[in-house]
Amino acid sequence: MEINNLFKAFFIIFFVGTNFIYADDEVDEIVVISSKYPVPLNEVVGSVSSISLDDMETRMVSDLSDLLDKTIGVSVSRSNTSGRSYNEGITIRGLGGKRVNILIDGVRVADAYSGYGRDVVEVDLLKRVEILKGPSSALYGSDGLAGAVSYITKDPSDLAELGENYFSINASYDEDAEQSKVGFLAARTGETLESLLQVTSRERSELELHDDSTLALDPFDGDQLSVLAKFKLSLSESIDLSITLDSQEFEGDYVLGSQTGMSYFPAVVNTSAVLGMDDGNRDRGTLALDFSNKNSFFDNGSIKFFTQETDQRQITTYSKQSFGGMGPPTPLSEYKDYQFNQSIDGLTMDFFKTISGADVVHNLVYGMEIENIDVERPRIRYETNLMTGAQNTFLGGEFYPNKTIPDTEIERQSFFFNNRMDLNESTSIVFGARYDSYELTPKPDALYTINEPANNNLLYIDDNELSVKLGFIHEFEEGLSLFGQYAEGFRAPDFQSANLSFTNLAYYYSVKVSPGLEPEESEGFELGLRGSTEKSSWSIAIYDNNYEKFIDTYMSGMVMGMMVFEYGNLDEVDITGLEAELKTDISDNLQASLAFNMTTGDQNGEELLSVDPDEALIGLSWSSSNRKLNISGYANIVGGSPDHLAPSCGRSGCVPALELSGLITYDLYASYEINDNLKARLAVRNLSDESYWNWSSVKGKSSNDANLDLFMEPGRNISMGLKYEF
Description:
By secondary structure, this protein is mainly β. It has a single domain, classed as Maltoporin, Chain A (Beta Barrel). The strands form six sheets. It has a 22-stranded antiparallel β-barrel. A five-stranded mixed β-sheet has the order 3-9-10-7-8. The model is unreliable at 9-26 (pLDDT under 50).
């Protein structure tokens, strides 16, 4: 059957399926991300998706891509930089990268150096993930143009009953990257003290691509250790003190064969061997005071102090031979050490208050956030002549050591207010506003100025932004409601777009600072219907998101024959779409889910390539009568990519742009409770062994790209695991 026909059939099934949905009760799912306080999912204004611990365990989630691959309207792209393959970032409804806010326990997740990607949080530590689709700056500030993703880690009370202990050991193996993982979890809930300790260790190699791939990723051998510790002390009946410690260490070795071979500019050199040695750590600490004391200003609240340190390092060594003159080649050894260091310190204060008037109930949340960020990105590189021992620090047209970005301090202060006004039993209005102050201060030193263009004034930013959100929800009858919202987002220029600056004398180009760089902005409109019965729930929403002042690089001129590039506010983007979901219990043992997303977008009047193709997800889940055996399966139906794309043209001519046809993939998951303590799990991904690429990973590439197969997805692969609880 054609993919388009499948979408039509799915559309009919969805609306036929909703004909029996009119009213009754269901167990409410609670989410926090939409309002900063708990709201039943069927009462949320706007589109929110959630991923539960049970879902993560059932699907044997091991990384960011696994985590989000069953969330409609959300995708994760894979990239490859200098032989290092990684999950690049999250896209929500056609827009991603740094335009999506990522939080862990309410704290902004650290940035990452190129080659590390966004897998900076161990998924085994999580009990829940919530995704807010659409502009989110009215709640979470800068970077919230496209949406927000909230990671929520496990708490002791999630696992252990009062006065009891909980222990578990789990082990798993993923075939696609030959990944083995072992974890230990302990928790106790006492009268005054709760505690949790989780340790996860994993080892993995490079991703094994589909057998049809003509290329293979460079060999990789890495390991990671993650530790989460939580302590919660009840100081009184109304005051709790919590401490969270979260540490993650990573290291990996590469054999970068893809980087070997002959090069002819700026000199004739043969690179015979390249090795990569990467390591990094992310350490987070939080001290939180939670209290309840009903008074005129708040019913309860929370004050949280946090700190986060991220240090990443990429070391690459080259064995080379330089050819010049009439003599034999000169043996050379090259060493690169590129580092990224970031520290984040801050304070958040949240207060909650319910005010019941004669006709209106106000559910208030308000507070402030203060965040201080320091960033360093030094680069060390030198070449050693193995015959003479002489060292050369002018390589590739640049002097080393250097910094292409000056050390930078970023300060954020914000005040926010959100009010959900229940006008009556059937109608609520939501209003939210957030004021953000953003200050970016570069601190140049000799390593930055060594390659800086002459007369290049650094960009100092001292700016502020007000973001608002306005929405409503109206219940026509029990189980059937209409919702709509307007929401704003913005992204302040980051340390790279603000002050990336250097001159390359070999390739004769420079990057200079752009004065007057402004924050990116977005406006989102959404209107939807939502319904539920005792056994079913559904929602359908249309959305229109407008983005302005996109920051991107452009060639701004020529100076003495040298091309000059800089960042500027260049693009305007409009994204519209339709998204729908249906979940129903067919019987006591069988459940079904249907979801689809259709999105279109244009960038300065041309088709936006970052928008994912139309997608439908059909799921079935069966449980045995004793609930010991659970089997679930998904069919992921993806439409074709944009077609009739303009060719890519250069000095050697024009090449057709890459276009992908539609496809269907299948995944199967099973779990079996062997006894009260032991559970086994199995996952089979890409069951039909489909050979394919994800559009988010290859968009914008040419059809004859020599490295295209490096982005192919794995073929049929199996994951298996055991979990023992006692």
